């Protein structure tokens, strides 16, 4: 089954066949428009893949959408979250309160959720301001780009690892660890129907945000992880993808290869940009020179911060491949090209 992205107002809950349904849940004020929440049938009650943003309109859409498909939200068995971001995990706690359902996510994201719940918003603000400074943002940009912290999602009851089967009686729903967008992002392979719930890992027309936070970390390589995860998904072959945004599409392997090619080209352009500069560049300078959906001058401050995170991830991938290096002992951090 293949559909196209339409405005949220035109979206409707759908029976996708084979004991799988989709419910569009709005993301207020976000250009993505909505999250596609999936319900997978089992004798013990449906299990949801993701839950949507924590907002009254989203809750009404989720509970009402399930009702229109013949389900009562009070009968939900569990919620398996592809990753901890608020448009995926935000309503999981409310579903649990209404139904007694369990919440499951990968152990790496579960650790992040616990850390978020343990730290006050003031600590987040100080962390973000210092991160922007070390990236090379000036004081004015630092104040504008520092966004408020979303409310942390509910902590999970269960933690998943790569290859684990989700508690879904009569079905085989297996976790496939696909880090990159978040450290604990998972896709979910419904093996008895050969379908893949891809979360944000593989989307039909856009690519997920891959960033490093704080920007100057040198002990992780999320873009490298993401590219390896694309290869893992590609090994599943030309199966149907059920993503969390946009529309359902066939041949996840082909789309994964397109996304890999996109990032390899982006890395080559970034290496060329660094090579043509006489002086090493800060992360903020690199971000301002890269190509985004809008010119840098037109990007809102919060999106500039996200762009810097993505620039940092690409710089780190070049560094991990021996194509770029950071200067030692400088603040803010600066990068220069190495010969390929």
From TrEMBL:
Q: Which Pfam families match?
A: Lactamase_B (PF00753)
Q: Which GO terms describe its molecular function?
A: hydrolase activity
Give the transmembrane ranges. none
InterPro entries (UniProt xref): Metallo-B-lactamas, NDM-1-like, RibonucZ/Hydroxyglut_hydro, WH-like_DNA-bd_sf
Q: Identify the residues that the record assigns to the Metallo-beta-lactamase domain, covering every copy.
A: 34-245
Q: Which residues form the signal peptide?
A: none
Region Disordered: which residues?
138-164
Would the keyword Hydrolase turn up in this protein's UniProt record? yes
Superkingdom of origin: Bacteria
Q: Which residues form a coiled coil?
A: none
Instruction: Output the Gene3D superfamilies linked to this UniProt entry.
Output: Ribonuclease Z/Hydroxyacylglutathione hydrolase-like, Winged helix-like DNA-binding domain superfamily/Winged helix DNA-binding domain
Q: Basic and acidic residues bias located where?
A: 155-164
Tell me the keywords, alphabetical order.
Hydrolase
User: Keyword Hydrolase: yes or no?
Assistant: yes
Q: What is this protein called?
A: Hydrolase
* Biological source species: Nonomuraea aridisoli
């Amino acid at each position: 089954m293949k559909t196209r992205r339409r405005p949220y107002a035109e979206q409707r809950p759908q029976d996708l066949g084979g004991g799988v349904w989709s419910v569009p849940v709005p993301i207020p004020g976000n250009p993505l428009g909505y999250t596609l929440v999936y319900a997978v049938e089992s004798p013990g009650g449906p299990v949801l893949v993701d839950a949507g943003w924590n907002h009254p309109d989203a809750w009404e859409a989720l509970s009402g959408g399930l009702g229109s498909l013949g389900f009562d939200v009070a009968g939900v068995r569990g919620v398996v979250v592809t990753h901890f971001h608020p448009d995926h995990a935000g309503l999981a706690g409310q579903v649990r309160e209404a139904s007694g359902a369990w919440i499951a996510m990968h152990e790496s994201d579960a650790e992040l959720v616990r850390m978020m719940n343990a730290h006050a918003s003031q600590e987040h603000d100080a962390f973000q301001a210092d991160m922007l400074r070390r990236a090379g943002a000036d004081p004015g940009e630092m104040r504008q780009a520092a966004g408020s912290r979303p409310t942390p999602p509910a902590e999970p009851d269960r933690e998943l690892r790569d290859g684990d089967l989700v508690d879904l009686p009569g079905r085989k729903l297996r976790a496939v660890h696909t880090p990159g967008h978040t450290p604990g992002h998972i896709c979910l392979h419904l093996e008895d129907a050969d379908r893949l719930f891809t979360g944000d890992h593989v989307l039909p027309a856009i690519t997920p945000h891959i960033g490093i936070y704080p920007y100057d970390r040198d002990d992780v390589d999320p873009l490298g992880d993401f590219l390896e995860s694309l290869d893992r998904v590609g090994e599943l072959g030309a199966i149907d993808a059920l993503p969390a945004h946009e529309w359902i599409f066939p041949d996840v392997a082909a789309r994964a290869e397109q996304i890999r090619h996109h990032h390899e080209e982006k890395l080559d352009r970034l290496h060329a940009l660094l090579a043509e500069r006489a002086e090493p560049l800060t992360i903020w300078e690199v971000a301002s020179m890269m190509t985004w959906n809008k010119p840098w001058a037109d990007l809102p401050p919060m999106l500039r911060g996200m762009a810097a995170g993505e620039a940092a991830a690409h710089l780190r991938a070049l560094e991990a491949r021996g194509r770029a290096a950071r200067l030692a002992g400088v603040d803010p951090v600066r990068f220069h090209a190495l010969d390929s």
